[in-house]
Amino acid sequence: MDATVLDLRYRMADVLNALDRREEVRVLYHGKPKGRIIPEGVSELKVIDHPFFGSRKSVSKSVDQVMDQLRGGRFRDL
Cβ–Cβ contacts within 10 Å for residue 51, how many? Predict the structure, then answer.
């Protein structure tokens, strides 16, 4: 469900009913998403569960070394 700031103020009962139905509520401000309200007990995807998390454990370079390699000569020319 999408809810504007005015909906949160004047139609909170509808927002709470949506949460009772286990729906996620996106809060919109000027038509753009600003946040979300997630019903109690609904599990969220954690970063550690993402398949790419920890995929570069075998790389022994420091962050600075990797960034220097990515930037190449552009960064050093400044």
Answer: 6
Within 8 A by CB and 6+ apart from 12, the residues are: none
> In Å, how far from its chain's centre is CA 65?
28
> What is the number of domains present in the chain?
1
Residue 26, burial from CB neighbour count under 10 angstroms (0-12, 13-18, 19+): middle
pLDDT digits (tens, 9 = 90+) for 14-62: 999 999 998 889 999 999 999 999 888 776 667 676 666 766 667 677 7
Long-range contacts of 72-76 (CB under 8 A, 24+ apart): none
Domain presence at residue 22: yes
Residue 14 lies in a domain: yes
The reported pTM is: 0.51
